[in-house]
Amino acid sequence: MGEGETQGTRGKHFFEDPGFWGFIHRSFTKSIGYTDDDLKKPVIGICNTFSELNKCHSHFRELTEFVKRGVWQAGGMPMEFPTISIGEPYVKPTTMLLRNLMAMDTEEMIKAHPLDGVVLIGGCDKTVPAQLMAAVSANVPAIVLTGGPMLNGRLHGQTLGACTDCYRFTLEHKAGNLTDRELAEAENAICRSDGHCMVMGTASTMASIAEALGMSLPGCAAIPAPDSRRRHMAELTGKQIVEIVRRDIRPRDIITPQALDNAIRVTMASGGSTNAIIHLVAIAGRLGVRLPLERFDEISKETPFLLNVRPSGAYQMEEYFEAGGVPALMKELEPLLHGGCLTVTGRTVTENLRGVAVLGREVIAPLGQPLAAEGGIAVLRGNLAPRGALVKQTAVSPHLRRHRGRAVVFASPADMAARIDDPLLDVDEHSVLVLKNAGPKGAPAMPEIGQIPIPQKLLERGVRDMVRISDARISGTSYGCLIVHAAPEAAVGGPLALVADGDEIELDIAKRRLQLCVDEAELERRRLLWSPPPPAYDRGYGLLFLQSVLQADEGCDFDFLLPPELREASGVNGSGGTAGSGKGERR
Ligand code: FES
C-alpha cells in the first residue's frame, strides 16, 4: 500500500481488533488457510451465484477462480460467498417475485461482513438488477462481472437465439408447421453452451446497462460465456476491484442521474428489454432519485436505434461482441452521452472511449444512418394506463403501430390459459387481446406473460401478431405488438380492471396514445361494481411481497427499501426499514 493511498478498512478493523473478537476473526479465518499476511490485505468479497437451478450461471465456479487470481495478483484477499440465485426458466410463479429478496440478501451479506470491496457475479435476468440495487444501498466499492451470453444456437445452417426462437418454434409447432421431432431437434440445438440468453433480452440488456452505468469494466457485457476472453475479463475485474478499494470509489460515485441517462440511452439504441425500465427505476430509487417514465420516453425520442441485434434486429450477442460490443455502441452514441461520468476503471466514460472503434457496421449502424429514428421502447399514456404502459416499438409489426379494435378480455392468467384456444372465442385478427390481473400484486409478481398467445384458430389462418395489452411483463426476447406494464394494475383497481369484451381500444404508438373508448359515466358505473381479486399469499415472503411491492412505474421495489426521503416524496408508507438512512455505510 503506497503512501497517501486510501485502503479499505472494514477488513482491517475486523482482523486487527486487539480483543476477543479480533482473536476469533483471525483464528477462524486462518483455520481455512489464510495467513497473517493475507489478513493485512483488503478483503474482497466475491459474490458467486452459481446454482444448478440457474443454467445461466453454470460456469460461475470457474469464473470465480479467475476473479480470485486477479484479486491475489493485485494484493487483495478474496473471500467467496453465495446468495440466492434466480434462474429465469425454473422459478415459479416468476423470478420477479425474488428479485427484491436477492437484492436484500446481497445488500445484507455485503454490509454484515468485513468486506472492503465486492465483485458481484450475475447473469440471468433478475440477478444483475438485484446486485446493482444492493450495490447502491450497501455503497461498498463494487464491480459487476456478468457471465456472458451463450454462443449462437445452430441448426441446419441456421442461427438460433434463446429465447426469441423458443417462441417461434413453439408457435409453429402449435400451428402444425413443425413435427415433434423437429421441435426436439431445435431444443437440442438452441442452447449449446454456458451463458445467458444470446439475444438482446433482459440479461444482455442488464449486462449492457451495468457497463453503460460504469459498474462493469468496458467490453464485459458481450463477451460470450465460453470465450477465453471472459476469463481474462474475470481476472481483470479481480485486479480492478482492489484498485477501486484503494481509491475508495463507490457505487454512488458512479451511479449518478447522468450515468442513469447514459444507461437509458444505451438501452434505447440497443432495442433493449422493457424489463430494464422497471430495474432502472428501482436502481435509481435506491439512490433516492425518482426516475419518471417520461425521462425514458424523452431519451427514446432523441436516441436513434442503432443495434441490429435480435429480437429487434438480425444478429445476436456473438456478432455484437465481434463488432466491438457496448464500448463500440457507446462510441457511436458519444455525442449524446454524459462523458464525464466516473466508471469502475477509475476513469470517465470519455476517457474509456478513447481509441474505441466500431468493427462491424452491419451490427452497429452509424448515428447519422440509424436503423430507426427513435429508440426501442415507447411510453404510452391514456385513460387505459394513466401512469404509463410500455411497448417495444422496434419489435411491433408495422401495420399495428396505429390500430383500433374490439377488446377480447381475459380476467386472469388462468382464464387466458383456459380460453385462448377455444374455437368459440369471439376473436379475429383485428381484436385487441386484454389480460387483467397479471401485475405486481395481481398474478402475483408480474410474470412474463404479456406475450399473450395468438389464438390457435388465428394462428392456423396465418396471423402472427395482434395488439395485446396487459399489466404483466414480457421477456426481453419477446416480439410483437405487446403493450405491457399498464399502471396502475388491474388488481389495485387500475383502469385495465374496467375493460369489458367488445370495448373499442385505440393505439397510436407515434402519438404515444392508449385509449379505452368508453365514456366516463360507464367507467364510473363499472368502477362501483369492481372488487379486488383475493390475495395470492396469506403468509411468509409472499405476504411481505404483496404488502410492500410498488407499482411498475415505481420499479416494483419494496416500499421499505427506498430511502426515507423518497418514501416521503412518493407518499409511500414504508412498513419498516432495513435500509437505515438509505445512505449506505460510509466508512
Ligand atoms: Fe437466463 Fe434467459 S434464461 S438469461
Ordered list of secondary-structure elements with their pairings:
Elements: H1 10-16, H2 20-30, E1 43-48, H3 60-73, E2 77-81, H4 96-112, E3 117-122, H5 127-138, E4 142-146, E5 153-155, E6 158-160, H6 164-174, H7 180-190, H8 202-213, H9 228-246, H10 251-254, H11 257-270, H12 275-287, H13 293-301, H14 317-322, H15 325-333, H16 349-353, E7 377-380, E8 389-392, E9 402-410, H17 413-419, E10 432-435, H18 456-459, E11 467-470, E12 482-484, E13 504-508, E14 513-516, H19 520-529, H20 540-548, H21 564-570
Parallel strand pairs: 1-2, 1-3, 3-4, 9-10, 10-11, 11-12
Antiparallel strand pairs: 5-6, 7-8, 8-12, 9-13, 13-14
The chain binds FE2/S2 (inorganic) cluster (FES).
Number of helices: 21
Which CATH top level class of the largest domain fits? Alpha Beta
Summarize model confidence as the mean pLDDT: 93
**CATH 4th-level superfamily of the largest domain:** Response regulator
Apparent shape: globular
CATH arch. level architecture of the largest domain: 3-Layer(aba) Sandwich
> Distance between the terminal alpha carbons, to the nearest Å?
18 Å
* Beta-strand content bin: 5-15%
Q: Within the largest sheet, what's the order of strands?
A: 7-8-12-11-10-9-13-14
Q: Could you name the ranges where pLDDT drops below 50 across 5 or more consecutive residues? A: 1-6, 573-587
Could you please say which CATH topology of the largest domain applies here? Rossmann fold
Helix content: 25-40%
Number of domains: 3
Question: Strand pairing plus helix content: what structural class?
Answer: alpha/beta
Strands, count: 14
Bound small-molecule species = FE2/S2 (inorganic) cluster
| Biggest sheet character | 8 strands, mixed
Cα gyration radius (Å): 24 Å
